[in-house]
Amino acid sequence: MNERIETQREAEQVREPVVEARKLARKLGLDPYPVKYWIVDYDEMNELIAYDGFQERYPHWRWGMKYDRQQKQGQFGGGKAFEIVINDDPAHAFLQQSNSLADQKAVITHVEAHSDFFANNRWYRMFADDLDAAALLSRHADRVRRIMADPEIDREEVEKWIDNVLCLQDNIDQHQAFKNQHRVEDEEHETDELADQLEDMNLSDEVRDEVFDDEWLEAQQEKQAGTLEEPEKDILAYLRDHGHAYDPEEGKAVEMEEWQTEILEMLRTESYYFAAQKTTKVMNEGWAAYWESMMMGEECFAGADEFIEYADHQARVLGSPGLNPYKLGKQLWEYIENTENRREVVRKLLRVKGITWRNFHDVVDFDRVADLIEPDPALETISSETLSDLESLPSETVDAEALERAEEGEIDVDSHPWKVLTYEGLAERHFSLCKLQNQGFLEAIPQADLEQYARYMMDDERYESVEEAMADVAYTAGWDRMYEVRSSHNDVTFLDGFLTKEFVVDNDYFTYEFSRTTGDYRVTSTEYEDVKKKLMLQFTNFGKPTMAVYDGNYDNKSELLLGHHYNGVMLDLDQATRTLERIYDLWGHPVNLKTIVKEIDERDAEIARRRDREPEPEEQGKLIRYDGNEFEMRDLPWSEVEDIAATDVDYNTKPDEWLA
Fold first, then answer.
1. Where are the domains of the chain?
2. How far apart are alpha carbons 127 and 272 in whole angstroms?
């Protein structure tokens, strides 16, 4: 009873912040799904984290392992879970009961931005237009439990089958819309075509039965079904449509049981659901961190007595070690905002008589420009005593109805000054080029950018003065651009498009590699190209090896041929062989994997160590084959692995010469 009362008390405490955060989010231009907030205790939060944010999942040992790891992380100072939000319509967010009000407000503002991202990013729409993820995963959980409870089905076999499928959970085609359609019609067409061919041969029943028995017909159908015009990235779909279960008792491949096909497709469906989160991790977390900071810090959603605690909260999130998606994402969103705002100001300045891209840095008074683009003082110091100052501002910056209500005392403008402003007014109030940390950014514009902006500029003498030009600046430019990017990009395109040399230098990014010479990790480069290659590598295919099916009838023996898209990083061969063992159970016949490895001559390695350099490896094609009993590895000529080697992107981030 006491716990229930505490939960109710917590719910009452956050009720107003939930309502006000939604209003502020919409004022700032966010358009989130509705969000249902739930109050949970510490153990329930850990359970949700273990279940990837959901209250119910299918039975499996890995959930317990994740729960145990999360509990230990909390107990031994490895990090605190502030929130969980899941992509759904409406979205669901879980607040931990023991959090302070400052933490709860931070979580709520963070969640509103996440929900906006879910609702508007195209990669989330690729799974389903009408989504009820919680219901979907609950149905899967119920179905798996029923399968396990069936007395005709061995529970251990079900668990093993799930393990087999999970080892391939990221081997889908995350760049294609989800297709929940078996290729049954194609297979029936292939079977009918083969039967028609035999019919045309006009054979006697005796000859037909003797020469073309059922086993032969089945083998031919398998070979036809396995034909591929191009590599198939959705390995799970291919195995669903063409795979067989290996039966150890019969010692051969047999048709999958209905429950096996069901489980394979259910787990594949879940992989597609979670793919959007994995492919937009940096964008999504950075987006949420940016708007949380805007609401909590710059719009004072955190009260004066909560701000220090909130600052500590955000510092912990942004300061976590390693490749931090919150920090990288937030920095990139701020860079997009700054560069677009700079573009807007510069393009106006280049239309002033006497200013060209050639003399820009010599004739522009940047201190004067900074003064001219400062937000109107009436926007910066909004209070109940200064409301009359807003009446002289342009109508598009002030919410006239809200201003009238504030003047009548219906709106507490001292606590919520944003309520009397529009999107345009808030954009001017928070114009990024006027912030202290961005001083000098306008002046630092590269000459190449100036030339590009001026190249197609026809009205280059539109303004008589800098004052006239700056009065025409669109303060919403940066935010408008951010919303455009939010709608269309994933992490790979986000990094490719916006991680520039200027960004890398300003934020002190660098690459590091394992040194065979010293046996430890070294900083290897601060060059922009190297940093970008390294980051792109981290986010291509969730940072996992990219695999595809290349042949379902390899060597004309019904064997499966997989190809690893080699991008300069070798497979972990131990993990690869363990994975092939799992895939064998899903294919029923021998499984092959072609890849490329780096081989280093020991003599060359010793010479390199003496000279404090890295040995130069030789790339060699390899084929790994597993027949159900043993592995075989053999060399492949380069002509047979050219199609799996990266060509137009070189991922090598090591410099030619390593410093001692």
1. 2-121+280-318, 135-278, 325-505, 521-644
2. 6
- 313 closest CA partner among 102, 112, 98, 14: 102
191-216: burial string, b at 16+ Cβ within 10 Å, e else: beeeeeeeeeeeeeeeeeeeeeeeee
Question: Which residues neighbour 151 within 8 Å (Cβ) at sequence distance 6 or greater?
Answer: none
Burial class (CB in 10 A: 0-12, 13-18, 19+), 151: exposed
Q: Is 324 helix (H, G, I), strand (E, B) or coil?
A: coil
Cα 314 from Cα 144, distance rounded (Å): 40
Find out whether 612 and 658 touch, Cβ atoms under 8 Å: yes
Residue 214 scores a pLDDT above 80:
no
Write the pLDDT tens digit of every residue in 344-360. 999 999 999 999 999 99
Helices (H), 280-376: 281-293, 307-318, 325-349, 360-363, 366-372
Asked whether 512 and 523 are in contact (CB, 8 A), the reply is yes
pTM of the model: 0.87
Residue 250 has pLDDT above 80, yes or no: yes
Query: Contact, 110 vs 289, CB < 8 A?
Result: yes
The arithmetic mean of pLDDT across residues 328-333, rounded, is 96
Structure tokens at 32: 């989130």
